[in-house]
Amino acid sequence: MKGIAKTERVRFQNTLTFLEKTLPKTSKILDLGTPNDMSAFLTQNGYEIDHAHGQDFDLHPEVIAKDGYDAVTIFEVLEHLVNPMGILQAIKAPRLFASVPLDLWFAKAYNNDKDPYDRHFHEFEDWQFDWLLEKSGWEIVNTEKWNTPVSKIGIRPILRRFTPRYYMVEAKRP
């Protein structure tokens, strides 16, 4: 994991540990997103990953409705969608592993004015994400939260050491 920031290494390792609890390495995974450092890390650790990318998922949720997968992973993608329910309902795989950033009272939602796809439409509280999953037809099996240790000085970096930033959920179709 050379060249990857410490906060990302922590997030990647936490994600891998969460998956390894119940998802066998022989599982075929459809990841909602483009190939990235996280999917490369999971592939290096034994998972077979295909990607569903290249479309606007709000307008084309059917892109993810593909058969033949044991699980779908969605890591820090749903917060970018106006309507994440459409994607969640379209999934055909029997299992879902998804993570989202949690809404933090001391940090505003992320917005990159230069790139319209690089902004957060939603940041969730855990109960909101649970409710979205349940309304989309999923049964929550396992959850976990973790924080993002930051080596900067200041009030927000100190608060980030103690406040969970990411929320990971494993869900299945009932």
UniProtKB/TrEMBL annotation:
SUPFAM superfamilies (UniProt xref): S-adenosyl-L-methionine-dependent methyltransferases
- What molecular function does GO assign, one term? methyltransferase activity
Q: Name one GO biological process term.
A: methylation
* Gene3D superfamilies attached to this UniProt entry: Vaccinia Virus protein VP39
- Protein name from the UniProt record: Methyltransferase
One family from Pfam that matches here is: Methyltransf_23
Keyword annotations for this protein, in alphabetical order, are: Methyltransferase, Transferase
Q: Do you know which InterPro entries this protein is assigned to? A: SAM-dependent_MTases_sf
